[in-house]
Amino acid sequence: MKKILALVLALALALSLVACGGSKPAEETNSGSELAGTYDITVWCADAIVELTKQQIAAFNESNEDGITFNATVEAVGEGDAATQMITDVEAGGDLFCFAQDQFARLVQAGALNKLGVQASETVSAANDAGVVAAASINGELYAYPLTSDNGYFMYYDKSVIPEEDLDSLEKLVADCEAAGKYFSMETDTSAWYIASFFFGTGCESTWETDADGKFVSVKDTFNSPEGLIAVKGMKHLVDSPMYLSSSDGAGFDSGCAIVVTGTWAYETVAGILGDNLGATDLPSFEVDGQSYHMGSFNGCKLMGVKPQTDAAKSAALHKLAQYLTGEQGQMERFNAVAWGPSNLVDQANEAVQANPALAALLQQNQYSVPQGQIHGSWWDIAKVIGTDVENATDEAGLQAALDNYQAAISALFNMSEEQLNAWSVIGALCGTNWDTDFPMTETAEGTFQSEVLELKAGDELKCRQGASWDVNFPADNVVVEADGNYIVQLVVSGDSGEVTLIAQ
Fold first, then answer.
1. Burial class of residue 287 in the structure, from the number of CB atoms within 10 Å of its CB (0-12 exposed, 13-18 middle, 19+ buried)
2. Cα(24)–Cα(36) distance, rounded to whole angstroms?
3. Taking the domains of the chain in order of start, what are their residue ranges?
4. 2-150+301-343 and 152-298+372-413 share one CATH topology?
5. What kind of fold does domain 152-298+372-413 have according to CATH?
6. Which residues contact 472 (CB under 8 A, 6 or more apart)?
C-alpha cells in the first residue's frame, strides 16, 4: 500500500509540474507572483519549538516578497515519531515535518519527501555542515533541509575527580574512576551507536549504499578485520573495569558517576548536578599494543522534510518556507531559545555557540566523527550484540568470535528470502532479552499475526516489526505489559497501519 501511495503521489506531482510547463521541482517552476496566495498547512515539530515555529512562520508571512501567506497549524510531533506517522499515512502527514536523520531512508522509500531543486540544493549545501548535507542526500540529490548538527556524543566529566591531564587517555580515566570508586558510564551493552566509537577510532567503516528509491543494496563493512580486533581489545579494557557502567544517562552523576558519555540533550541535567565541576570534552584515546587510537563517534542531525504536493505552487511556497526556517537566522533563533546545535556554518562559528560547553565539546569531537548516513534498520540490533560478546569474551579468540558472529549477521541481510523479509516478529525487553531477539509470529488469518505464548512481566515493553528490521514496525509507542502472565501477542495489519494487542492465556 505504501508503494502504491508513493507512486500515486509521485505521479500526481509529476502531472502538476507538467501542467506548469516543466519537469523541474516545483520551487523552480514558479516565479514569486505565481506563488502569491494563502495556503493552509500543517507543520510537525518538537514540542520545545512549537511556539517559536509559530513566531517564525508569522515573520515569514510578513517578510517574504512573493505574496505568500501561510495559515499554519503547528503540532507537537517529535522527531522520533514523525517518520512512523508519515509512512503510515503520507497524505495525512504534516506538510512540513522535522525528523531524525536515521529515519531518512524509510521516508524516501515511502515517497514522503519532495526533493529540493537545483538552486535550493546549491544554496543549502553551501551554507551547511557537509556531513548533514550528506545525511539528507541520495546519489547527490537533497531530499530534506538541514535543521541541526547536534546529534552526536562526547564526554562529560566531574572536574573534582578527573584531572585535566588525564582527559586524552582512556586507560588513565578508567584508573581515575577505579581509584575514586566512581563509574565510567558509556552505553556499550545495548547501543551500537556508542559501540561504533571504538571501530571508527581504528579506521573501520560500515558504509551502506541505497538505490534511488532508498532501498539498501550493498554495504562496505570492515568491522571484522585486524583493525576491528584492535577496536574490541580497546573496548575490552573499559568493560572489564569494576567501575564500568553501561548507560548514557546524564543523571548518573547523581548516583556515583565521574564520567558519562552522552550528548547535548543531557547538558541541563549534568549542569544541574555538577555545577562548577562540570567538564565537557571530546572522547579519549585508547592504547592497544603500544599504539594509540582516538575514539570516534557518529555525527548525526535533525532534518526538515517537505511532503510531496499535488499543487505545484503550494509545493514551491513550502520549499521557500522550509529554506527560511532552516536558514542562518532560523537556526540561530532555535539555538538562543532551546540551545539546539546549528548545522549552518556561520552559526557554528558564532561566539555564543562556541561558548556553550556541550556544543563546544561536540564540535571538538566532530573532527573524529563519522557522519551518520543511511543505515539498514537491522544494523542497530546486529552491532549492539558486539558489546555483550566482548564483555563475555575471555581471550582473543572470544573477541574474534564476536566479530565473526557480527559479520555473519551482516552478510545474511542481503541473502534474506522474500518470506523472511515479509515475516513479522515480536521484539522488546521481554523474556530475558533486551531488544536483541525476534520472537516469530504466524499468520493466523489474512492480515492477522500471532506469536507463540510468551511469559511476560509487568513493565516489559515490546513492538512488532517486519523483516527483523526497524523500517516497518508497530505501534508508534512501545506496548507496555500491565501485569505478569502468559500472553499471545497479536498484530492486525490493515493497509499501512497495525494494531497490537496482548491476549491473556
1. middle
2. 20
3. 2-150+301-343, 152-298+372-413, 418-504
4. yes
5. D-Maltodextrin-Binding Protein; domain 2 (3.40.190)
6. 87, 106, 465, 466
Contacts for 290 with CB less than 8 Å, ≥ 6 apart: none
Question: CATH number of the domain at 418-504, please?
Answer: 2.60.40.3620
The C-alpha atoms of residue 137 and residue 10 are separated, in whole angstroms, by: 18
Say if residues 253 and 335 touch (Cβ distance below 8 Å).
no
Name residues whose C-beta falls within 8 Å of residue 173's C-beta, 6 or more positions apart in sequence: 157, 162, 166, 167, 184, 259, 284
Strand segments, DSSP code E, in 95-215 are 96-100, 137-138, 141-142, 145-146, 151-152, 154-158, 183-185, 206-210
Instruction: Single out the residue of 30, 25, 23 nearest to residue 114, CA to CA.
Output: 25
Walking along the chain (505 residues) 10 residues at a time, the average pLDDT comes out as: 39 36 42 84 96 98 96 92 84 94 85 94 95 88 95 96 98 98 95 96 92 81 97 97 97 97 93 97 98 94 96 96 98 94 94 92 91 82 92 96 94 85 92 88 95 96 90 88 96 89 96
Question: Measured between alpha carbons, how far is 142 from 118 in angstroms, rounded to an integer?
Answer: 9
Which residue type is seen at 145? Y
CATH code for 2-150+301-343?
Answer: 3.40.190.10
Q: Are 249 and 185 in contact (CB under 8 A)?
A: yes
- Angle CA(256)–CA(258)–CA(259) in degrees, nearest 5? 120
The one-letter amino acid code at 370 reads: V
Q: Please list, residue by residue across 338-368, b when 16 or more beta carbons sit within 10 angstroms of its beta carbon and e when fewer do.
A: ebbbbbbeebbebeebeebbbbbbbbebbeb
Residue type, 225: S
Q: Which three cell numbers stand for residue 254?
A: 547523581
**What global pTM score does this model have?**
0.71
